[in-house]
Amino acid sequence: MRPYPFPLALGLGVLLALAAYARALGFFPPGGVYLALLLYGLLALWGLRYGAVYGLLLLGLLAWVWPWAPVLAVLLLFLLEARRLPEKAQGAFYGWLFVWPFLALLLIWQVFPTLYAFYLSLFEKVNFLRRAEFAGLENYAILLRDPLFWRALGNTFWYVLFTVPTGLLLATGVAILLNLRLAFQGLYRTLFFLPYITALTAAAAVWRWMYHPEFGFLNWLLGTPGLDWLNTPKGVFALLLEPLGLKVQGFLAGPSLAFLAVMVMSVWHFLGYQVVILLAGLQSIPKEYYEAAELDGASFWQKQRYITWPLLSPTLFFLFTLGLIGAFQVFTQVYVLTPTGGVLQDTLTVAFYLYNKGFRDADFSYASAIATLTFLIILALTLLQRRVLERRVHYGA
């Protein structure tokens, strides 16, 4: 007879304990706890085939009163039966015993909140002050007809299109230069990394002063006194084409000047992180390749094109994926630089709109619907990006 699946029992015990805690705090439906109790109870009853001592597992059904009962019941039974178990089964249990604390944290802070957000999105105007009525997919139907959501989504797409490629191109160029033998190389690397370790809120506050129409450093530097960077809702493409007599409106007018100012600040802030990652990727490329290329008479640009770029592609793909996900979650710098979302909601992003619905309007069900739909959009774009770009990634030298 195969040994009893203690790792499975431990996992179900932890899940049951977490579900019981979440239910006690009001963040988990009773049906989820009942399902966990049923699965754990079936596994406990199946254990009676191995001996009467396995009846200790039934103590875990007290999780409704004491959430940690199933975990302690499994641990107690394992200590009693450990000597009779094969060495492989003991090793598997101890391995899962060390893994579950960290896996439980991942469930608590990532998986459960995601599932709970979807659960909230199925109700009508949840504000935790009154009983909410089940609404099904009504919030999603309203969301797809919400012009403000589409405005926020369009702004977010502009943010992604500008910050992700621009940031990677700048970071790659800086990383290549910093990888050369330069005087004060360590100082340059420190200077580029300092913005990233600066608190984003503090950095955005400084940039808000720099953008000030009367006392800002940027207007003084460019000689454009009075230009209100953060309160100009006109699209940058419309501004550039206006002297030529061409007029564009709507999405084709491009991001507003205010939103462009937010994007520039974001690229500056995250440049240091990307440079450090790219430097690590550059230093992993064997120098012999460059030496061989020099012997063949390759120029600097040819070495970058045929050696650096292909061998740096895994690092670029990694940063592109993280940049795409992070760009869809942009909030802090938008909130600090333009607290109202711009003059005509021209700097409103999806994350900012979610915040307004949840914490300003106290409509957590609608905010949860926004979060769920945003998650699906990010997932779809990430899978599409992986399918299109990963084939061009060279993982081997």
UniProtKB/TrEMBL annotation:
<keyword id="KW-0813">Transport</keyword>
<dbReference type="GO" id="GO:0055085">
    <property type="term" value="P:transmembrane transport"/>
</dbReference>
<dbReference type="InterPro" id="IPR035906">
    <property type="entry name" value="MetI-like_sf"/>
</dbReference>
<keyword id="KW-0762">Sugar transport</keyword>
<feature type="domain" description="ABC transmembrane type-1">
    <location>
        <begin position="153"/>
        <end position="385"/>
    </location>
</feature>
<keyword id="KW-1003">Cell membrane</keyword>
<feature type="transmembrane region" description="Helical">
    <location>
        <begin position="364"/>
        <end position="384"/>
    </location>
</feature>
<feature type="transmembrane region" description="Helical">
    <location>
        <begin position="311"/>
        <end position="331"/>
    </location>
</feature>
<keyword id="KW-0812">Transmembrane</keyword>
<dbReference type="Pfam" id="PF00528">
    <property type="entry name" value="BPD_transp_1"/>
</dbReference>
<dbReference type="InterPro" id="IPR051393">
    <property type="entry name" value="ABC_transporter_permease"/>
</dbReference>
<keyword id="KW-1133">Transmembrane helix</keyword>
<feature type="transmembrane region" description="Helical">
    <location>
        <begin position="48"/>
        <end position="80"/>
    </location>
</feature>
<comment type="similarity">
    <text>Belongs to the binding-protein-dependent transport system permease family.</text>
</comment>
<feature type="transmembrane region" description="Helical">
    <location>
        <begin position="157"/>
        <end position="178"/>
    </location>
</feature>
<dbReference type="GO" id="GO:0005886">
    <property type="term" value="C:plasma membrane"/>
</dbReference>
<feature type="transmembrane region" description="Helical">
    <location>
        <begin position="92"/>
        <end position="112"/>
    </location>
</feature>
<feature type="transmembrane region" description="Helical">
    <location>
        <begin position="190"/>
        <end position="210"/>
    </location>
</feature>
<feature type="transmembrane region" description="Helical">
    <location>
        <begin position="257"/>
        <end position="280"/>
    </location>
</feature>
<dbReference type="InterPro" id="IPR000515">
    <property type="entry name" value="MetI-like"/>
</dbReference>
<protein>
    <submittedName>
        <fullName>Permease component of ABC-type sugar transporter</fullName>
    </submittedName>
</protein>
<keyword id="KW-0472">Membrane</keyword>
